[in-house]
Write a structure and sequence with these properties.
This protein has a 6-stranded antiparallel β-sheet, with no helix packed on it. It is 22% helix and 28% strand. With 139 residues, it is an alpha+beta fold. Strand 1 (66-68) and strand 2 form a beta hairpin. The mean pLDDT is 80. It is built from 2 helices and 6 strands, in the order ααββββββ.
Amino acid sequence: MKATPSDRPPAIFGQRPAILLGCALLAGLALMLGFAAFDRSRRAQLERFDEPTAVGDAAYFTTLAATLHGQPLHPVSARRYTFRDSQMRRAGRDDATGFSIYTYHGRLPKDDDVAKPGETFFYLKMSREEYVRMRMEGS
């Protein structure tokens, strides 16, 4: 038997827009889940924290040969300096070993007879709050 217009159920007002809106919301949710999964897979790259001070650096330098931006660093003396790790700022990393090289941001000791005014020294961490002083070749 053929359906006549009187046999069909009455059309619901807004049915088509409601279906389209529901499909769009589901597609948006699927897109958000896809982005969340993508971000979660890259968490190690996205949530990297870099501490600019020497606090927590447990990679202690053991040999006295280092380079900073291609410039060799040489030890000033065998004396170990005691500075708070929070006063040390990273100047870079040794190209070969990856050890951090620091500069000191504080007042030098009064008995420091090596330092000249305006001279920049670099420090390698030997142990917790202990550093060896280095200077660039030619300075």
